[in-house]
Design brief:
Blueprint lengths: L6 E3 L4 H8 L6 E4 L5 H6 L7 E4 L9 E4 L2 E5 L15 H11 L5 H6 L2 H7 L5 H8 L3 E6 L2 E6 H4 E3 L2 E2 L6 E8 L6 E7 L9 E10 L2 E10 L6 E2 L1 H7 L18 H13 L10 H43 L2
Parallel strand pairs: 1-3, 2-3
Antiparallel strand pairs: 4-5, 5-10, 6-7, 6-10, 8-9, 11-12, 12-13, 13-14
InterPro entries: CO_DH_flav_C (IPR005107), CO_DH_flav_C_dom_sf (IPR036683), Diverse_Substr_Oxidored (IPR051312), FAD-bd_PCMH (IPR016166), FAD-bd_PCMH-like_sf (IPR036318), FAD-bd_PCMH_sub1 (IPR016167), FAD-bd_PCMH_sub2 (IPR016169), Mopterin_DH_FAD-bd (IPR002346)
Pfam family, one: FAD_binding_5
GO molecular function: anaerobic carbon-monoxide dehydrogenase activity; FAD binding
Length: about 325
């Protein structure tokens, strides 16, 4: 690494970290996983005067459930979520589907979810999931703690509501009910590229009718998006019988939601290998396929629940 000269602080507590960040006379950066920061410092596109390494702060690596909320500490690494059992229920399944799209194993072993929220890259999988699920970001400074909803947190590429003197200590997600189906699909040029487009979905279908839908869009604007218009178009629609997402009729609610997401919710930015028209087409296709995946996931969960109830009833009968 060939960065510009910088000072280096290694706090042992959150209080020490925010005290170092509170020195507003210097440009500061927080080092957690460093997967984005180190590269930018190497290229000298970022030239901090002080780097605050939070890896020695006890407790920031904790992942836990408090009531109906999952709290992900600032030092919880991406790789933790590769196991669907790391987080209860459908939320764990959604995280497991999404995380394998993040770079490659060495990166996932060091990079952190909170670091993704701090960096705020438009192609971040975690940021779009957090926006879709109404996650909260915990921020600490010397004055205390505040919480910002993900929908209000992102201001554009690399720009957020976090102040320079604040430290992200955790991201909080509401747990998803057992009757929620989840899906995540990503499209990119090569395995190691950022997503050109990706979609996260959480879907609830009751008696064949869609009662709730959440859709997160990755790299479909200058910040992560929740596809509100597409979600509204789904509420009250009949999900129908299982359909292959690759052969979905144009009149199906999932196909219609894809078109709405592409034209009304998204504001794609052209890239060297993906112009705006290409990205809108990709959004429409990925939204309908991800919704199909979420619907299949919910049906599978319902079948497993029914099988478990049936097995339990049989066991009770055997003991009579």
């Amino acid at each position: 690494m060939k960065p510009a000269a910088f000072d280096y602080a290694v706090p042992r507590t959150v209080a020490e970290a925010v005290e170092a960040l509170g020195d507003t006379g210097r440009k500061t950066q927080v080092l957690a996983g460093g997967q984005s920061l180190i590269l930018e410092m190497h290229l000298q596109r970022i030239r901090p005067e002080l780097v605050v390494d939070i890896n020695r702060i006890a407790g920031l690596d904790q992942l836990g459930v408090d009531g109906n909320t999952l709290r992900v500490g600032a030092l919880v690494r991406h790789g933790v979520f590769e196991s669907a059992q790391a987080v209860p229920g459908p939320l764990g399944a959604l995280f497991a589907r999404a995380v394998v799209n993040i770079a490659h194993p060495p990166i996932r072993s060091r990079g952190t979810m909170a670091g993704s929220f701090a960096w705020a890259h438009p192609a971040s999988e975690w940021c779009a999931i957090g926006t879709a699920l109404d996650a909260d970001i915990e921020l600490h400074d010397q004055a205390g703690r505040r919480t910002v909803a993900a929908g209000d947190y992102f201001h554009g590429p690399y720009r957020t509501a976090r102040r320079p003197q604040e430290l992200i200590t955790a991201v909080r997600f509401p747990l998803l009910g057992d009757d929620v189906g989840v899906g995540f699909i990503e499209h990119r040029r090569t395995h190691f590229c950022f997503a050109q487009v990706a979609v996260a979905a959480a879907l609830t279908v009751r008696d064949g009718v869609i009662s709730e839908a959440r859709i997160g869009l990755v790299n479909c604007a200058d910040r992560p998006l929740r596809a509100h218009a597409a979600e509204q178009a789904l509420i009250g629609a009949e999900a129908g019988t299982p359909v292959d997402g690759y052969r979905l009729p144009d009149g199906h609610p999932f196909a219609r939601a894809g078109r709405i997401a592409a034209t009304q919710d998204a504001a794609p930015v052209a890239e060297p290998y993906a112009d705006v028209e290409y990205k809108r087409q990709a959004i429409a296709v990925l939204v309908k396929r991800t919704l199909c995946q979420a619907a299949d996931d919910q049906r599978s969960r319902g079948a497993q629940h029914s099988d478990a109830q049936h097995s339990g009833a049989q066991r009770k009968g055997d003991h009579r």
